[in-house]
Predict the structure.
Amino acid sequence: MLHEADMTDRVELVEATGTPLAPGTMPLGQNPLGKIPALERADGPAIYDSRVICRYVDDLAGGRFYPAKSRLWETLTLEATAHGIMDAAILMVYEGRVRPPEKRFSDWVEAQWSKAVRALDAVEARWMSHLAGPVDGAQIAMACALGYLDLRHADRDWRAGRPALAAWEARFAERPSMQATKSA
Ligand SMILES: N[C@@H](CCC(=O)N[C@@H](CS)C(=O)NCC(=O)O)C(=O)O
């Protein structure tokens, strides 16, 4: 969102790592939930949760990425869908990375993946016309969620059976914002 809004020069990025069990360098002072991202502001308290931060950045940049009603409700619902995919994908990662092997619960991991599958199928079936419209917060969130699936769950092959979404992602991934923030 910072890249799309042309605001990168107004923000300093600070690295943070941690998990629910070991918060490490997570910004606990800025976000009591111990999660990233959080945004420190010169003119007020820190704000957190990427949806809140995106709205804030968009507001500063002129409000291009959250359209007027009634499209706004679509944008927010599709954005929430992307966040749901990411939340499920992150919980799957934590199950493998944080939980001791003898306590891992594969049914629970698969249940999380089922959420992602249903959401991806819904996007393929019902949301392609929205994705074809003007770039908005939902499209940015969806592209990030798909990028995260490629990074952490490539073996699940989210593109299989979803040609429209796969084609959309390939085009969106060419945007300079996505190129500049590609996960290695
Ligand atoms: N809804 C939040 C989710 C953020 C999130 O889950 N961030 C992960 C990134 S690794 C995190 O900070 N996890 C640490 C934890 O859950 O303790 C957002 O969009 O900002």
